[in-house]
Design a protein that fits this description.
The chain is mainly alpha-helical and about 80 residues long. It is built from four helices and two strands. The termini are far apart. This is YdeI/OmpD-associated family protein.
Length: about 80
């Protein structure tokens, strides 16, 4: 799959968050466009509070499965 946007590099801080939450595998199993969208979305936040809120949302969605950016995502729903 080719991405229309440049691929975002994963910041070390996000990597640590995913590892600490035990969600790195859940992140890696998402399609490339979703991983890229999450990283760009978090990276575009200006305020620290906004960045924290976006990271928390990403972690919650990965943990729950079946959700992407607040929308249902059936392929990632736990079986």
């Amino acid at each position: 799959m080719t991405l229309k946007r440049p691929r975002a590099a994963m910041p070390a801080s996000i990597r640590r968050e995913l590892d600490a939450a035990g969600l790195m595998q859940a992140f890696k199993t998402r399609p490339p466009y979703q991983r890229n969208d999450y990283l760009h979305w978090i990276g575009r936040s200006v305020r620290t509070a906004t960045q924290r809120k976006r990271i928390d949302q990403m972690l919650a969605e990965l943990k729950a499965g079946g959700v992407y950016m607040g929308m249902a995502h059936r392929p990632s729903k736990p079986k």
